[in-house]
Amino acid sequence: MARSSKTQPKGPDWSPEQTLRVLRQQLTNLQKLKNRNHREADNEEEVWKQITEGALIHGFGEDSHNLSHYHMARSAGVHNLMGISDHQRQLNFQKRIEKFEATVVSSIAELESTLPESASKGAYAAGDEFAFYRDLKEIVAAATQGVFIVDNYLNTEFFELYVEPARAGVPLRILTDQVRGNLVAVAKMYAARGGFELRSSADVHDRHVFVDGRGWMVGQSIKDAAKRKPTYMVEIGAGLVPSVQQIYEELWARATLVVKS
User: DSSP class of residue 146?
Assistant: First the structure.
């Protein structure tokens, strides 16, 4: 009598380091899909999904919760057997991107927890705001060529904690959306150092830091990072920094000047 055999789910066959490297790259690539029209981004999204799904299978296995969360993210939004409007398709696209990001970020954090501390820098638990402050301050303070910070909501404390440590003479630019309260007054005082410029644009929705040809993505607005929710600060792959920064350079060129030294 022949025995029935059941195919066992494929297990992980990549090292945590390799999986982490690919997922960090995919997190960077995902940023390019944000705020796009779903029709125009369809092909790019499909490529992103295939690469990410493969990385999750290789890194965690076919029966992992990571892959399950990814599949749920692919189905995010509202669906109807009778069909949905183009507007709903756009909303579903935005929801997918949001869920994809959460899945990749949580998988990165899981991998980082298995690595030595020196290799896991980039994930911050809720309440770990000092670690985030320390790491970002070190990045800004080490700049020798220029600092370009993109954040959709800043406050005056941001200048005291993150901008003030920058070396004198190093050009520093900030692009934001919300210019409220005493932010302009504090920015004008800081501008006395020279080489400083603040601009605003309603098109700013993400958080990025570019320093001396390197770049980082930040999960929350810098002023609230790791205070009440976990967040991340992931370095962008060197090969992608120019193209990602160019997106924000174009926003910068169209933005409204607020303060300039």
Answer: -
Q: Which two tokens stand for residue 128?
A: 């770990």
The per-residue pLDDT for range 178-210, each reduced to its tens digit, is 787 788 888 898 888 889 999 999 888 888 999
- Yes or no: say if 249 and 150 are a contact pair by the CB < 8 Å rule: no
Domain that holds residue 108: 16-112
The DSSP call for residue 66 is: H
Q: Under DSSP, is residue 221 helix (H, G, I), strand (E, B) or coil?
A: coil
151 inside domain: yes
CA 93 to chain centre: 18
For residue 41, the model assigns a pLDDT of: 94
Q: In whole angstroms, what is the distance from residue 15 CA to residue 73 CA?
A: 24
CA geometry: angle 14, 17, 19, nearest 5 deg: 50
The model's pTM is 0.61
Q: What is the spatial distance between Cα 100 and Cα 23, in angstroms, rounded to a whole number?
A: 11
> Looking at the structure, do residues 135 and 250 belong to the same domain, yes or no?
yes
Asked if residue 201 lies in contact with residue 255, where contact means CB atoms within 8 angstroms, the answer is yes
The answer as to whether 130 is a domain residue is: yes
What pLDDT is stored for residue 1 in this prediction?
45
229 and 199 within one domain: yes
The C-alpha angle with vertex 42 and arms to 93 and 64, in degrees rounded to 5, equals: 65
Claim to verify: residue 169 and residue 81 sit in the same structural domain: no
What does the alpha-carbon distance between residue 64 and residue 172 come to, in Å, rounded to a whole number?
A: 44
Phi-psi region of 169 (alpha: psi -120 to 50; beta: other; left: phi over 0): left
From CA 33, how far away is CA 13, in angstroms rounded? 29
The answer to the question of residue 23 being in a domain is yes
